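Shift notes (night). Ran Nudix hydrolase domain-containing protein while the centrifuge was going.
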Amino acid sequence: MLKTINSTMTVAGKTSKVIYHDTNDFDEVDPGKTTQAYGVCFYGDNMLIGFGGKKKSWGLVGGTIKAGETFVDTLKREIAEESNMEVLKYMPIGYQEVIYNEKYKIQLRYVCLVKPIAPFIKDPDGSVKEIKLIDPKDYKKYFDWGKVGERIIKRAIDLKSKF
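Came back to this:
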């Protein structure tokens, strides 16, 4: 059953409302409001995470959609840039609507199977400093995004078996 979760998220002292939706496709998503595509990436049985970003913390790999890019183009480009991994297969997990003051944006989440392109050196933008392959059940040792994060990771693990 597809779920919706209402939550909040605080980043740099700013609290946003987050409405997460499971989905099997992104047909209902407004491309003009969609700003990010991130992947819960698996290499074998391990989950890929990256360290860095504005928060200097561990998290999923992905990033900002550039003008003229499709959602999938962004996903593949960002994962390659940030981890030196190639996306072999992908599937939508869900999306979250993020509302802060009058600002509204949509962030996409995918499950991906990946493989290394070459040894990781660093993200060309310098945002990801390190990558790690972890047991998915241990992700909360690195980041904890509450009920929304739990749902995203659980759904990724469940959907991975469909590849």
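The domain at 4-160 is CATH 3.90.79.10 (Nucleoside Triphosphate Pyrophosphohydrolase). The chain has one domain: 4-160.
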